[in-house]
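ESCALATION

Customer reports they have been waiting on this structure for their group meeting. Please prioritize. Original submission:
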Amino acid sequence: MFSSLISINDLSSEEIRKLLELAAEVKKRPQDFRNVLEGRMFGFIFEKPSTRTWVSFQAGIFSMGGGVIYLGPEDIKLGIREEVRDVARVLNRYLSGVIMRTFSHWTITEFRDYFEKPVINGLSDKEHPCQALADYMTLYEKVPAAQDPVLAFVGDGNNVLNSLMLVAAKLGAKIRYATPKKYQPDPKILKAAKDIAKKTGAVIEGFQDPAKAVAGADAIYTDVWVSMGEEAMRKKKLKDFSGMRVDKKLVQKAKPGVLIMHCLPAHRGEEITEDVIESKNSIVFDEAENRLHIQKAILLHLSNEGAIR
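Update from on-call: job pushed to the front of the queue and completed.
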């Protein structure tokens, strides 16, 4: 049973399925979960700005009776003003759990090693587990898992793709990705996902041609090409990602009625066109909503209030 959520690999296949089921219950009957976190205080340690991660976690915690303390990049300056391990041991005396959004994955693992309560990865350079869980929750709402939908990711081999591959592997799902040669997903995570896939029957395929990745797909997913902290690389990345944009021409190569997914924020006109993200098949804002529900399910479990055993 997982005690923190740093990586999708912290979860078993069954735990992922149960989290998705619990999130669906929370979404359907939010009133049943009021006040279950009463008396619990959670810390947000954010090195990066945030809209969905911050608001969805805070709204979820407040709706279940808990409290939140926000610690932004200028508040504690992890590893600069004070060592990560010292901050972790101090906050352990005050808080019931911590949600972290950091540049380095190491910062989260180091903090977890010295914090004796739940730690949740709200985003790092290596993984974005809460996002990937919300994504699969959303996909399966539209195309049930029993129909074995194919998810095609087009763009950067980044933290989102890393976590999506691991979720797909654990669930025995089908995922294809198309990334430029220099921007492949993390090789260790890719190997781990493929090793898991051998046991679960998942299919993980990589391409450089986005048309091959989206052929016959049930959903097309993309993310920004230039992430926070990469602004100096902007011109180079825009050049390197030429031909990777999700536009109407690419969408037409997928299954009719293909769903459009994006974790937001979107740079319209770069990785995705305005007409595609605003199309009737876009489920981008359903994904954003489901961040709230999946994170409430994670919090319930980690606070021993969930139904995951």
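Sent to customer with the following note: The chain has two domains: 8-127+291-302, 129-288.
Escalation resolved.
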